[in-house]
Input
Amino acid sequence: MTTQGWVSETVEGSYRLSFPLAARLFEGQSDFQKVEVVDTPTWGRMLLLDGLVQTTQRDEWVYHEMIAHVPLLAHRDPKRVLVIGGGDGGTVREVLKHPGVQEVVLCEIDAMVIEACKQHLPGIACALVEGDRRLTVRVGDGVAYVADEAQGFDVVIVDSSEPMGPGEELFSETFYTNVAQKALNAGGLLVAQTESPWYNRDVIERVYPMLGRCFAQAQPYLGFVPTYPSGCWTWAFCAKTPQPVLPEANQGRAAAITPLCRYYNPDLHRAAFVMPNFVVQQVEQPSVVSG
Amino acid sequence: MTTQGWVSETVEGSYRLSFPLAARLFEGQSDFQKVEVVDTPTWGRMLLLDGLVQTTQRDEWVYHEMIAHVPLLAHRDPKRVLVIGGGDGGTVREVLKHPGVQEVVLCEIDAMVIEACKQHLPGIACALVEGDRRLTVRVGDGVAYVADEAQGFDVVIVDSSEPMGPGEELFSETFYTNVAQKALNAGGLLVAQTESPWYNRDVIERVYPMLGRCFAQAQPYLGFVPTYPSGCWTWAFCAKTPQPVLPEANQGRAAAITPLCRYYNPDLHRAAFVMPNFVVQQVEQPSVVSG
Output
């Protein structure tokens, strides 16, 4: 694969991660953001939004398995699942691996993301390309959907981009209050991506106290996503009623999904909830608290 | 802090991680490698060897706590500890936190690394700057030391640079055979850094079968080191006699060290040994096996 320079994600003043660039496959400006798909020899094809890496062919399974299987295997019987964001399709692909799931709604604000991924990242977007009778795709604002219409879900997954631009409102207390009080059934679970404790301490210190006000249980779990800043990523696990992160009764389902995964297994599910001391401190004793 | 361009670690053809550069504090060419210390606003001061980031002020504790406390808290009563490499002093700083340790030998091949760190990274090199009656610093070749002289150690820690240049022999079967058969006491433990499963699959697939031939028990553990490639790092835990990675009898010592740590705690110690599926495959079913 011949290369032509580098493709870089730059966080001004702190960080730049670059990969050799083989080809630019798609570039467009939607109503919401700049959408790009590039090809790289190291990580395969890569989706960037406003210049920030969202997913790559070679490591996408870490993020998508961890955001989907943890809540679906924590819930005692998830039948209806809402995914907000996630227009690349990787999260719904994983959700649809669960035979007990009867209905999945994907609510993505940016149609250009969906179309670019269907065309250029079909291995990630396969459920969008091939369709599934259980899947409904809504192009629209997840914040408004949750405020006005969404109800009766067992699991809500917030697969957002960074907390600026179109993803910003997905990190607000109003949104999470609506998820907890309107969208979710009793016993319902929310999982949301919450950035890196190394580069986004401000997000973590703001979001976890907020989630703690909206849910009876709110705690982080960790995974290694090598193409995200620092490689150390967090997701928030939130429950309307406190419960184990992997109930004993769900062990069989967790074991059954493992052969379909490259990252997830039941022991890793539990281990992902064990935090290093410095992350415990960010979550439990934030130096900056705001509403 | 004003900046002047970027300092980068480049792996040709696959990866470049860059940080804003505030100042170049030290640059020298030793008999073994290029030694640099720079200052950055994001990660503080940073040691590079032959252009590869070895440690930074802001995240050094992850690597040093995990390479030191895991074997010292796995061993039932570590009294004599050998550290090979580790000329920055961070690993011996952590080892010396254990009151039961009576003697530590640091065997570093490159005097320039020791001197540059004592001068420019005193928070990491504090044990080298201040001294400790239990610590002996040897400037010399760890491979030869283990082959010819070293014996009677309870724990050996290989805190090497990458497996090229001066670190290359520290990834050889002859070296590990000598560690197991000559340097270590009965019940002895080895821990060695073994690179990233994302960027150094070849190293992992070669080293773990080799360690399995030298030790009765050889298994990886993981930690998040944000300034290393991918952020996902492995260490090998090897025992002459199979044993738990954290014996019940050592729980009290593990709990006592936790308040002195920013990353390590006993639950994390155990969780670090739970591997994602793709790492299990690299270790147990390597696609490339060589002697």
Remarks:
- The domain at 60-284 of chain B is CATH 3.40.50.150 (Rossmann fold).
